[in-house]
Amino acid sequence: MARDRNPVNHVPELHAQEGDRLTTAQGAGVDDTDHSLTAGPRGPVLLEDHHLREKITHFDHERIPERVVHARGAGVHGAFRAYGNAASVTKAAFLATPDEETEVFVRFSTVLGSRGSADTVRDVRGFATKFHTSEGTFDLVGNNFPVFFIQDAVKFPDIIHAGKPEPDREIPQAQTAHDTFWDFIGSHTESTHMAMWAMSDRGIPRSYRTMEGFGVHTFRMEAADGTTSLVKFHWKPALGIHSQVWEEAQITQGADPDFHRRDLYDSIAAGAFPQWELGLQIMPDTVDETFEGIDLLDPTKIVPEEICPVQAVGLLTLTEAPENFFAETEQVAFHVDHVVPGIQVTNDPLMQGRLFSYLDTQLTRLGGPNFAQLPVNRPRTAVNDMFRDGMHQQAVHSGIVAYKPNQIDDDLPRTSPEGEDAFVTIPTPVSGEKGRHHPVSFTDHFSQARLFWLSLTPVEQAHEVEAFTFELGKCLRQEVKEGVLASLACVDTDLVARVAAGLGLPVPDGEVPDGVVPSPALSQIPAEPGRVDGRVVGVLVADGGDLSPVADLRTAYADEHVVVRVIATHGGEVSGSSGETESADRTLLTTRSVEYDAVVIATGVAGSVVAAEPRTAVLLQEAFRHGKPVVALGDGVDLLTSTGVDTSAPGVLACESVRDCVQPLRDALGMHRSWERLSMFAG
Fold first, then answer.
1. Is 412 part of a structural domain of the chain?
2. Beta strands per DSSP E along 308-443
3. For residue 282, what pLDDT is reported?
4. Which domain holds residue 510?
5. Which of these is catalytic: 51, 77, 143, 260?
6. Are residues 188 and 140 in the same domain?
7. Catalytic residue among 70, 242, 626, 672
8. What's the CATH code of the domain at 570?
9. Is 143 part of the annotated catalytic residue set?
């Protein structure tokens, strides 16, 4: 069957793996792909075996250089729907037009680890979104923290070299618990604020679905009437912000290194589509580019939400996993300078360096300047850029003219006059002497680190102390530990005293900033139960016990797409006391507590072979220790008691029937954890 021809390039549209027969890359049929061409049954393989050579050649060249940073990632397709209320600050159609839907591709990632590292390491997470807008591609290339380690891009190679595995042994992989990283942090006090974020619970998110995202930098927005504003981007997860606890994250790295990407794709498959609201902090575009005394060009500073609220302008919904990980997740190419009319960059020195770096790295990774032609990167608008040739050129250009002005082709393509759909740089004054400057406002390195610390609840502060103590405890050099303690002494006296005590070192003196007001928005602990879409409840059952809670819980939580999994001692079918059966989703051998947001013990498990299995005690004790809801139905209380779980502790529910525990369990899931119980285990 003939295929449609592309009217522009006069070549067939590019599709992969078509037809039902095996062919060579040139389209010739292949009769046998299991045996090489040889001279006789036991003779040598012949060089003329073109299928062997082509197949091996393609295999040998399947890999492209992995990203220097953000190598470990997961991508998803989705759509962004604008509320339309952003028209007062930007003329960007995808934000300003009510109910405008824009196709997006989002890539989540860790920063330091290789492609083969684990998902749940303590690290910054990338949150990069490619908007295929009607006016061109807009890339919002952000992180799950609103600040960064450095103020100037010239130091970016340094911080990454410091954080990456040390070069002599290539150890540790995907971790910052080593000397070079903390030597950098202690030597560059501007990094203190970001280090506070990294050592908080936000450094080990529960899932990508429960993670905030930030544009980090300040952008300049232009409305249709020409007025401008300074803006910061925020992604607010519909499920709230939720993290793992440290022991849980460590267990997850071994039990399921792919935990975050599996959670992401499983939730989509279950119909619990991840969602975020895009919000803007909108500030006046003043000459000094500050707001309430905060330098908006300093990427190590936030603007507290209490003094500049985040205004929601649209909803992002992720609905589809990639068909091919390499073609989409690996080949997607983001660039901070991919902007559209209505959104422009600022003079943030870290942002300015990224404008060069992102384009430069794509040239190496993707083999040349034509990476925008790859399907995942291709703009959804007409492109007539007059560019020619280069590695991996996929289009067949027609005509002989590739310059302007011209008379041969009626001076086409035409430029877009201002006022149409053209991107026109906003004229902003630039003056000053050439030099390597450091603004005075950039010298405050501790007030916002203190702001972050004071905004945390006691249990979150305890986790922060434990993280600093663990990471610095892995360092071998005493001067490195002392350098970081010197910085912490300028953040908070209690913080540095607790970390120093854990390290067995003296407490240094420091000058703590005065007058710092906490920002409650920085705490992850919710004030009330939130949504529970895609949460996972494990139900521990036994042959001959009551299996009805499995179906009852599935029915009760069906509208919220809560996943209920059956845990048994064996695979296959489990038979209940009333003759009913359930298929085991997990066995005690193949599961760990980290898979579940709550654990339910069905009636009849106590006294069974399940109760005698040592892994049962491990499962329940871990769930209890990590602050997860634990529900005991009927005689399940006896099992909790026998395994050393305090049945009177917060978040432990004893119920006679599922009906009694449906709402209390739902509320407990919506709070993420029992924070009161977690404080029992925090140092």
1. no
2. 311-320, 343-344
3. 98
4. 448-522
5. 143
6. yes
7. 70
8. 3.40.50.880
9. yes
